[in-house]
Write a structure and sequence with these properties.
Length: 348
């Protein structure tokens, strides 16, 4: 007697059975669209390394947000490009800074839109680093010491505690403007606690904090730095962002942020770090956001434009993978096109 070997495939036999057994779902309300805002009127400057993304003036930002909302994207993450940059990034915490203006306009025009504000200084500082700089003597090589050198004068590092002071100011400025969620992304120690204290002391006990807890020092941020005009003028971010090789250190960052009062945590980038999302989800029971970053977007767009991949199918698969890894929310530049794709499918 012979037995049919078909077992697992019975559950995939036809679309009726298959679609009832979908374990992971993906809908536009899980997506957060990042948006860039700059001074001016009636402008939408394309970002060349991110086809489909723009730096919007506030009036055009409102149009875009309305369109997103209509398509089913109910959350946005705002980044500002200020008129003027300076050593401390003071536009970030000015009551009338670009982000504060954008948040007020957005909450007024679409109150139902969830507005998340990125809290960092690299877009606002003249040097492009994520905080206030202090001189940082580097150890000398043996040869330099033999030659009589003492310190290398030209090196700088971000001053953690000086930066905390402007982080508190910025969180308050954003909350006062009406931001629904504050998202610190600078990887400074103690940022979440500093923000929580500042918010609580000024009547914003209800404002949640979404911390970019495990943010890796990644080459995938390249296109974003064009979009946000935020590339560091010298050096890199390795003294504050995480080493891509380290899981334990990433988990420690998350533990610390949760202890300091983070309501949600983020993993960034997402694609090369799905294991981190899963580990966080299995360890803590907090909402986790994945940031599908600019370089991940640019790769898909470039290959799609060449006809080397089925772009829509790849987008769906990537976002699904992030959900499957455990992400509750996904910040993605694909948000709009994904929502448009889903609406189209539904109307077929
Ligand atoms: C600010 C910030 C960065 C990104 C989000 N917030 C850039 C960086 O750290 O260099 C990158 C997002 C992306 O690549 O899409 N610190």
């Amino acid at each position: 007697m012979t037995f049919p070997t078909t077992r697992l495939r019975r559950l995939r036999v036809n679309p009726l059975v298959r679609s009832r057994l979908n374990e992971t779902s993906l809908s536009p309300d899980r997506l957060i669209a990042p948006l860039f805002v700059r001074p001016g009127k009636d402008t939408a400057r394309p970002v060349s390394s991110m086809p489909g993304q723009y730096q919007f003036s506030i009036d055009r930002l409102l149009q875009e947000a309305k369109e997103l909302y209509r398509l089913g994207i109910r959350s946005v993450l705002l980044f500002g490009i200020p008129e003027k940059k300076d050593l401390k990034g003071s536009d970030a915490y000015a009551a009338n800074g670009i982000i504060q203006q954008a948040v007020r306009a957005l909450k007024k025009s679409i109150p139902e839109m969830l507005v998340i504000t990125d809290l960092c200084f690299c877009e606002y500082t003249s040097h492009g680093h994520c905080g206030i700089l202090k001189p940082h003597p580097q150890p000398l090589s043996l040869r330099e010491r033999v030659a009589g050198g003492r310190v290398r004068p030209q090196s700088f590092d971000v001053d953690n505690d000086a930066t905390l002071a402007i982080i508190a100011k910025t969180a308050l400025a954003q909350a006062r403007a009406g931001s629904d969620i504050i998202a610190p992304s600078g990887m400074m120690d103690g940022a979440v606690k500093t923000i929580r204290n500042a918010l609580d002391r000024h009547g914003f006990e209800q404002a949640p904090v979404l911390s970019y807890s495990s943010k890796f020092s990644s080459a995938f941020y390249g296109p974003f730095r064009e979009a946000a005009e935020s590339a560091p003028r010298f050096g890199d971010r390795r003294s504050y962002q995480l080493n891509p090789a380290n899981i334990e250190e990433a988990l420690r960052e998350v533990a610390e942020d949760i202890a300091e009062g983070a309501d949600m945590v983020m993993v960034k980038p997402a694609l090369a770090y799905l294991d981190i999302i899963r580990r966080i989800k299995e360890t803590w029971h907090v909402p986790v956001a994945a940031y599908n970053v600019s370089g991940e977007y640019a790769m898909v767009k470039a290959a799609g434009a060449k006809g080397w991949i089925d772009e829509e199918a790849v987008i769906r698969e990537i976002l699904l993978g992030m959900r499957r890894a455990g992400a509750d929310l996904i910040i993605t530049y694909h948000a709009k096109e994904f929502a448009a794709m889903s609406n189209e499918r539904r109307s077929k």
